[in-house]
Structures are given as structure tokens and as C-alpha cells.
Records
---
Amino acid sequence: MQLKVLGSAGSVTPEGQTCSFLIGERTVFEMGSAASVLSTAEQRRVDDVFLTHAHLDHVKDLAFLAENVFGGRDAPVNVHGLPATLAVLANHILNGAVWPDFTALPSPETPTLRYAPIEPGRTIEAGGVRVTAIEVNHPGGCVAYVLDSGSGALVLCGDTGPTEALWEFVNQAGAKVRGIMIETSFPDRLRALADVSGHLTPALLAAELRKLDRPDIPVHIHHIKAPTRSETLAELAALGDERVRVLEPGTVLEF
Ligand SMILES: [Zn+2]
Ligand SMILES: [Zn+2]
């Protein structure tokens, strides 16, 4: 199976789109940029969307994808997320005030979107991939996803501060896990901001990777905040960890 990076930034600027990752043709993880990058025809092929949490940089393009696929599909798009994440969407974004409630349009019987609550630790199948959510440490509730194609697995961790269960899972899963995607939002000088907002800096990332028993595994970094991007990139390079690389739009990962 292939994962294609549509957007990998932590900020919206002319230079970068926020995170979205396309699996095959029918599944998208994170809705930071899917409607901005995929054609309308490509968006109409998406059957399942997985959200890590409700922050705007991770959900904003769901609003626009719903509008773009409206009337163009036979079945609703399943929107998978924690119950708390879906409640934020329903109450604060797709609420008929900020944006239409596409879970009831064009009719409640044949909606454009359908909420599909997930339960951490329980595996579901979507688009030929087995998907399992693992809770991570980020305000409001947030999950990472393990994507298992049968021949290999990828760990997709969006926003998180220091965490434990994720590394326990990867260590137990062994060689099946082919790669880890994880954030590094801020440079080390903004450590206090990272701590209060549940994010990582390069030094915090290095501490996380010391919990990992895999000296061989690629660690793909995303969600770098634009105003301090060059500083964060320099600190990531200075870690001297050959596993660490930065995800760019258009990159394809096989698993
Ligand atoms: Zn967040
Ligand atoms: Zn974010």
C-alpha cells in the first residue's frame, strides 16, 4: 500500500499546506489540505476520512471536501474520529452557522458525511488497510493511527507531546512497523510553548526516540511551524540521528 503526502506543514502559508495523507485512492488521514490539493474527481473517490483530533489545522479541509463531493457520490463519506473530536465538529464547525451540517444534507437519509466514532485499541478496516487508534498526549483528546496493509505497518502520529503507549506498541510490534510519522512543531527555545500546547521540539523528539527499540526505523517529521521552520530544521539536523528525515509534499511511503 502507498501513503502519499498531500500536506505536511504545521502552518498555512503560501509555502506549505497543513497535514493530509492519502492512502491508496479512497482513504485520507488528517484533513489539513485534502480539499486544497486533490482534484474534485479525486475527492469524490474518498470513502473514509480519519481525524486525529479537532484542531483547525487538522480538520479545516473536511468542510471544503464535503462541499466539493456534495451530490457527486452514491454513499456518504465516513468521518472517523474520537467521539470528542466528532462532537467538536458537529457543535462548532458543521453546525449550520459556521458551515452547513453535511451529515444531514442533502437529506438525513442520504447525507454527504457520516460520523463514525472510533474506540482506541479497536481495529477497523478501511480501503484495504487495518486501522488502529492509540491515544497520545495533546489537549482535547488526540490519537495516533497504526496503518497495517498486511505486508507492513506505518505509524501515523499527528500532534503529541511526550507519550508512552505509542512507543510500547511500536516496540511490541517489531519489524512489521516500517516507519513512523511524528510531529516536531517548535524549536527548543520555545520549549515552554511546546509543553503547554502538547507539542514536541527537537530535544523532546530525541527523548521520545530514546523510548524506541528500533535503531533502523525511518522517523518522518511533519507539522513544523512555519515562522520558526529553519530553526527547527537546523536543530533536527543537529540531532545527528540518521532515522530522522523531514516529510515533504508529494513524498510516497510504501508499507
Ligand atoms: Zn493540535
Ligand atoms: Zn496541529
---
Amino acid sequence: MAGMDKKKVLFIDRDGVIVKERQVDTYESIEYIPHVFEALREISRKTDYLLVMVSNQDGVGTSAFTYEGFQGPADRIFSTLRGEGIVFDEINIDLSFPEDNLPTRKPLTGMIDRYRSAEYDMSSSFMVGDRLTDMMLAESMGCRGFLLNADELEVPDELVSTVAMKTGSWLDIAGYLIPDGTLPHRTAAVVRNTKETEISLSVDIDGTGEGRIETSLGFFNHMLDQVVRHSRFDIAGNVKGDLFVDEHHSVEDTALVLGEAVRKALGDKRGIERYGYEIVMMDDTVATAAIDFSGRPEFIWDVRFSMEYIGEFPSELIRHFFRSFSSSACCNLYLSATEGGNSHHTAEAVFKAFARAMRKAVRRIPGDTRVQSTKGVL
Ligand SMILES: [Mg+2]
């Protein structure tokens, strides 16, 4: 299992990949490749690839390409990237001419040989480049490559298996490397009919926060809208309850079905964060939520409402909603809020904090397929 902890590297060429291919020796000659910031920022945020620059700059230090002319714009490129949260772990720039025949010149691997050690997983690593020499470097390193903006290049047979993708867009590379975009969505649908309620509900954990749960209870609908929006789950639900009795069954059963749907959608919970927490402020109230999809129901509630009813909705049912969710989702759920706030604000802050904590807890860790428990089961 030690192999799973090896570091993965995204080797990146500079010219033709980060900036347009030309001699960059003035600030005016820096022209960025479209979407490079967006793609590298998402890759940095959502994956654990180390970013390593591997670039050749022919003949820096000659009168035609002075060292001073090269260095200022080069520093500016990296400082601009850093400002967008894109930080290179190592920057390797070889300044030789082809005829110098140095081992640091691509496709030779002299600049990055140290990555061929047990600390790194080359088979899961990639090179982004715009030339066949970049792909040859990838092949020599035992990794694969993305050939960017190289429409005119014919990939020779011996490199076909090295080139993971040939594309004109950085966004395709980000989509390839960020697992969330390609893994199947985690979904479940639950139908539950009793003498007290008839409920159908579907959930897509990997959604964008679309849909709603219709319960015929105005305030409750409003709170469930917060859950949909702030969890970013897509949820479609319809609840027909015995409202002629009171709201109790509708609220309880909606929570039970939502919890069951989330539990089923999570499946064996491989590769999820498992824990999530959030603090949400809403005007005069601060709410805190913590959730652990541990497989065990436990519920801690430290919220008091100053009003018995919020609109026509009994505020005591909010506690009951979350307790019911905890029991059917099999999660530990902690909710608290500061006292003395407007009850509508308190309720809304609690629902939002709950939803956002859940969103963090269900997040997939890119490339990780383990269950986040030393027991091996959640
Ligand atoms: Mg290049």
C-alpha cells in the first residue's frame, strides 16, 4: 500500500504551453496560452500533482538573447502564475544550444532524473508539451504526455502509447486529470409510501445544486432549498404528507428519505473525505455544523430558537429533522448556533451550515480509492 503515497508529477514545458512560442526577452513578448490559468488552478486545487517546469531556452547569455532580457520576463511569468495559486515545485530551465549536446536538453532527462526514484510515481505522472521532444522525454521518464497545440504534428508509432491526449485546449487536460469530471455521478432514488406520507426523492451528490423538494410547507421548502443550493447536490423530491394531522410526519419522513438517499448514493464511501464542517454566519446568528459519515448515527444539538413558530412552522421540528437525517444517513451530526438571534436566521444558518459541511464530507479525494477508516469499513 506504500505505493499509493508516492508523489505524482505534472512536468510542464514553458514555451508553446504556458506562453506563446517565441523568444520571450521583453515584457511585451509574454503572451499566455488561453485557459492556462484556469486549467492549472483547477489542477492545483483538485489534484495532488506536483508542478515541475521543464524548459529549454536556446542560447540565453548570447548577444541575441541576453540573460537580463530573459530573466525579468521569466520571473514575471512565474509571479503571475503564483498570484493565481499556481505554484511550481521546481523550475528547471536549460540554457544550452542543441550542438552543446548536454544531457539537460530535451528529450534527454538530465534536468529531471531525480524524479526517477521510489519517492515518485512516474506511471501516474504526465508531461505537458508542444513538441515531440517533450513526448520523447515523457517516454524516457516512464510517464505519459499531453501534446498541446500541435495539430500539425504526426505522432510516430513508437510514441502513440505515450501520448495520453493531443488537444488544442488546456481545459481538456484539466478534465483528464481531475477525476470528479470523469467519475460516474453518485446517485440514488428512494420511494417511501406509508399511511402517513408518500415520498419520492432522487439525489445526485455530484450535481450543481439544482432541483427542489416540494413538501407543501412554505418555510420547510425554503430550508430544503438551502440544502440543495449549499450542498450542491441535485435533488428532486415530492412529499405528500398528512398535513391535516400536522407537519410532524412530513418533516420526519422527508429527513429519513433524504438521509437514506444520501447513504445509498455514497455506497461504500471509498475515496471520500468522510468528515466535513462549516461555520455559517447569518446576520445575528453564527451556526456551526460538523458531520462524519461514520456509519453510525449520533446527534448532538445545541440550538435554541427564541420563537416557538417560524411563520407557521413549529421550530421544534427542525431538531427532529436533523435527528432523523442522522439516523437514516448513519452519520454523526453536530449542530450548534449562537443564542438570541432571529429564529428564521438561526434556522437558515443551521441548514446552510449542515449542507456545506455535508458537501465537504462527501467530496472525493482525487485518485484515492481507500475507505477513510483504519477499520477498512464505514
Ligand atoms: Mg515548447
---
Amino acid sequence: MTERKLRLEPSAFAVEIAQEMTEAERGYGLPCCVRHAHAGGQCKRAASMRVYELAFCEVHGEEARIGALSELYDDAATTIERVDNPHAPLENAEAGHLLSSVVEMLNERCIELGQSEDEALLRAYPVISERVCTETQAYDYDVVNEAPYPEDVHMNVRRELHGLMRRAYEKGLIATLETLEEDREEASAQVAFALDDRERKTRSRPTLVR
Ligand SMILES: [Zn+2]
């Protein structure tokens, strides 16, 4: 008997959290919700998708979709890993195998989403020089130090905000979502600015070892 690889369809929640608008919804001509100054102010494009129930244009929506699903799958993997504790192993090898398979599958989804995340961020938040944070501007990639890259610092903030937004979405706190979204836009823009900054400062290098 051949063993089939475990395959799970995304949950209804994962589908619902980021989805394309229907033709009827697009007909309302809702504006994209992105409005932070780091994004160049209010986005003028029409909304075509919803992430956490907020309306986004295609470009900003794709960036928010990747961030939302990455956080959801990453957090799901961490939650399941807590059950699969090496200090208190499950007394059923098959159950342990299934848990490991699910964690592996969730991690694969995160890797897949991560492959287009930088590009989506750079498309959604073109660099506005005067808005690049001073830490990013001052970061010298030639100095060997312990400080994390600016993109990682801002990415962690963005990830935490996605977690808070997921919880607010689950509880139907729309006003809270709108407030958090503005902070998320700031963090996402700073990730994009830092990615661009590193690319420019290290362009002439053959390889940059992290
Ligand atoms: Zn937009």
C-alpha cells in the first residue's frame, strides 16, 4: 500500500480572512483603505479585495493578503508545536506523526507565501526618501555587529500587528482593525524602505552573508 502525503485544504477562516470582492461589491466603487503618509497618503485606486474585512486595491491587498496568511499559518504551526512537546511525548506514534506532518505543511505554506512577500511589499510601498526611518538610513552593512537588519525589526512589528488584527477580526472589532491597519501600513512601508535601502547599499557586493 502506498502512503499518500497528508493534504489539507485551507480552512474556511483562511479563505474568509483574505478574499477577492464579488463583481457586485466592486460595483460600489469603494476606495482602498490605505492612507498612511508612508504610503503617500490616501490610495486612489478602487478596492478589489478584502483582508480582515477591510477594503484594499489589488496592489495593497496582495501585500496585506500575504502578511495575513503568513501570520495565520505561522501562528497555527506554533500552536500545534506546543501540543507536540518533546518533554511530554504523545503516547501514540501515529498522532505524533500527524502533528509533525501538519506543522510541516503549515511551514511549507509560509515558505511559499514568503517567496513573493518582498516583491509585494516593494510594489505596495514605493520608497519615499524623506519617510525612511533614521535607523534604516544610518545602518551600515559593512559594520559587523549584532544589530538585526532594519527590515527584520520592522517585519517583526508588522507580524505582531497582523496577529492583533486577526484577533480583532475574529471578535468583529472593525474600529480597532482600522486603527491597527494604519500602524500596519507604517510598519509595512518601513520594511519595504529597508529592503530597498539594503539592496542599494549592498548592490556592488558579490554576496552578503547574514
Ligand atoms: Zn491601495
---
Amino acid sequence: MNLMNIGSLSYEEYENRTVAFHGCFSPGLLIGGFMVDLALRSLPGGALYDVICESAKCLPDAVQLLTPCSIGNGWMKILKIGRFAVTFYDKHTGDGIRVYLDTEKLQRWPEIRSWFLKLVPKHEQDTRLLMAQIKEAGCDILSTKPVLIDVARFQKKKGKPISICPQCNEAYPGEHGSICRVCAGILGYFSEADVLLPQKMLVA
Ligand SMILES: [Zn+2]
């Protein structure tokens, strides 16, 4: 029996796709593949599933590589809790399965443990050994737990009004107030020079 498949892919095929998708080798993305695979195998078929990632690192890419759930279509949510766990749940009933990297099970896999808990600086990490252990461990370092999700919390809000911001002229959710959040200075991510640009253009 070949336990090394991830979804419909062989481990090597999955590994190659992670590099193409993610831009580089990623231990978290390889482990994430086993996590997604385990979640999918643990769920009854036929239902429509949504996904919650408890980490923004690596895991969301595993979900997007192996399932139709993406950030863009809203079937995957990222909660920045920082735990390496993913939950697949029935979007109607909330019944789901949470898969997480089990720190107790890491005792048998010292190189994975040392990478995961950042026990050694990256340049001292034995990458070949780490990759070998990830492949050999597979689902051995994971645990699962049935969970019930509060689906109402994640339902899309429909029909909310859109406003045009009088300062930048761009559309934004009207519930944010009389101007958009960037012009209000709440969620600016530009350098100060750039923030001033739209106003300069309006004056000119
Ligand atoms: Zn604005």
C-alpha cells in the first residue's frame, strides 16, 4: 500500500507543485499537504466544505493547491492565531475536522521538531534531513479532532451599500463611514508621500 500520496498526487508530484506555487521548498507546505490530505480523508464525501487556517504561513497554500477553496472565493478563511492547524467543515451544519501538528508526536522526529519550534537558526538546519523526516513521518506527526464550527460567524454579508469616497474617489463599503479607511488614516499602508498624492491630484 502506498501511503505517500497527497490527494491524487504522489509525494514527488506534490513536492514539485509546492515549489512551482510557493517559489521555494517549504517544510510547512509539505506538512500542510499531509494535513489537507488527512482532513479530506477524514470527512464524509458529498458535502460542501469550507476551510479555516489558523496560520497565515504555508498552510493556506497547501489548501489552495489541493482543494477548490481559496482566499479569493471565500471558501477559506485565515485566522491569525498562529497555530499550525487547519479545519475543514460542512458549510451548512458546521460539522468538521481539525488537523493539527501534534507537538507530542514530534519527539520521534527531532529535525522536524527543531525546525517547527525554531530551536536552531535556519542556517544551521539540516535541510536534507528535515525534508527526509517530513516525507517519512507523513501523517505520523498529526492529530485530528472533530469540531463544530459557528457557521453564522463566517457567513458572507450580502447587500451592503457601497459609497464613493469624496477624497480618493474610490468605491468602499459604506458601513466604514463617510470616507474610506485609507483616507481616514485608519488603514494606511503607503508612505506619507504616497498618501498625499490623491489629494494633490484633486487640488491640481
Ligand atoms: Zn478615500
